[in-house]
Amino acid sequence: MAQKSKTTRKRTKTTRRRKKPQTTKSYTANIVGLVILVLSLLAFFHAGFIGHLVTNVIRLLVGDTYALVALVGLAIGLALLITGQLPKLAKRWVLSASLIYMGVLLWLHVALFFRSKSAYWFF
Asked: Using CA atoms, how far apart are residues 95 and 84, in angstroms rounded to an integer?
């Protein structure tokens, strides 16, 4: 009678779990969020010399809508302070909000020059 051959099982390799290197959490984004939050609050309320300075810098960049930009900075600073990362927004929302904002800026700019007397040479 034929002898039954022994089936040898492959020896399973035991895998050791690798220890994850312990990383120290960086609080840089939280600190940046705190700085943006404080500067936006100072700019929005015109508090002190720094508040007026930040307000005038924002006003230099965006004009009379500095309060809206200060509020947006406040929201971004608060999100950075709490989560440590920028809020994730869809590109279409950011694009449409920027186009609307640029349209409002253009409208305000045109209204400013139509109020001034030096704009009448155009017509």
From this structure: 24
pTM for this model (two decimals): 0.70
Q: At what angle do helices 48-62 and 66-83 cross, to 10 degrees?
A: 110
Is the distance from CB of 81 to CB of 37 less than 8 angstroms?
A: yes
3-state SS, 67-85, equals HHHHHHHHHHHHHHHHHCC
For residue 27, give the DSSP letter: -
pLDDT tens string 66-119: 999 999 999 999 999 999 998 899 999 999 999 999 999 999 888 888 776 665
* Closest C-alpha among 64, 25, 65, 66 to residue 42: 66
Q: Distance (Å, rounded) from C-alpha 122 to C-alpha 106?
A: 18
Return the amino acid letter for 82. I
Q: What local confidence, expressed as pLDDT, does residue 116 receive?
A: 66
